[in-house]
Amino acid sequence: MRALFLVLVAANLAFYAWIRFYAPQDSGTDPRPLTQQIEPAKLRIIRDEAPAPAPAPEPAAPPKPAPEASSACLEWGGFAIADAARAQQALEPLAPGVRLQQRRGEETAGWWVFIPPQGSRQAAQKKVGELKALGVDEYFVMQEEGPTRWAISLGVFKSEEAAASRLEALRARGVRSAQVGPRETQVPRIWLQVRGADAPLAARLKEIAVGFAGSEVRDCPPP
């Protein structure tokens, strides 16, 4: 019995020694403080945070208004030299302060309105008196030798339509002997240029152009 007791004591001592010195330590029951763990300075707490919302985009700048179109340059013509002064007098009250210029050139006239040859200077002058009495001031007595001598020109035109318009205006005044015919010739022309014309002025200019047979309003040619 004594021997059995000694064996049990020896077994307990051996088990205690194994537990104390050889058994592996349980990491979950490690009594050492946090400061004795491996590299405690590198430990950090990770928080489950939602990412910060992205900044709202700045509102787009409103588009800049397109620059206003510059005023137009218009020209009205082409007038015979005798008609240009009357046309300019009609135009000037419409455009006070607007710069007016004249552009001179030549064009081929293919048609004219005329009173046939009168046979002599005296007969041509008599017909001119009748025209003045009817309020017709735009005319030219043909004096050069040839088949049209002592005829009275009432205007030369680029197109037959323009000549017909002039003839209609003359008949409205009571001129009955005038007619339209072909006439190929180079004639001087004057164009009245209006620089800085706005839309209302352009519309008014087209209105008064109707009263000048054969005239037209168009854009100025490039310089």
Into which percentage range does the β-strand content fall?
Answer: 25-35%
Strand line-up of the largest beta sheet = 3-4-2-5-1-6
The number of helices is 5
How would a crystallographer describe the biggest sheet? 6 strands, antiparallel
Average of pLDDT: 78
Q: What structural class results from the helix and strand content?
A: alpha+beta
Give the tally of β-strands.
6
List the helices and strands in order. Answer: HEHEHEEHEHE
Rounded to an integer in angstroms, the radius of gyration calculated over CA atoms is 55 Å
The proportion of residues forming helix, as a percent range, comes to: 25-40%
List low-confidence stretches: 33-38, 65-70
Question: Explain this structure to me?
Answer:
This protein is an alpha+beta fold. Helices cover 31% and strands 25% of the residues. It has helices at residues 2-21, 81-91, 121-133, 160-173, 199-209, and strands spanning 72-79, 99-115, 140-141, 152-157, 179-197, 216-219. It starts with a helix and ends with a strand. Mean pLDDT is 78; it is low at 33-38 and 65-70.
Quick recap:
The chain has about 220 residues and is of the alpha+beta class. The chain has helices at about 1-20, 80-90, 120-135, 160-175, 200-210, and strands spanning about 70-80, 100-115, 140, 150-155, 180-195, 215-220.
Offer a few descriptive terms:
223 residues
